[in-house]
Amino acid sequence: MIHLRTFEYVPGEHEAEKASNSYLMSLVALIAGLPLPIVNLFATLIFFMGNRKSTYFVRWHCMQALLSQFSLLFINSFGFWWTMGLIFGKEEISDRYIAYMIALFLFNLMEFIATIYTAIKTRKGVHVEWFFYGSLANQLIKPRS
Question: What is the pLDDT of residue 34?
Answer without folding.
Answer: 63
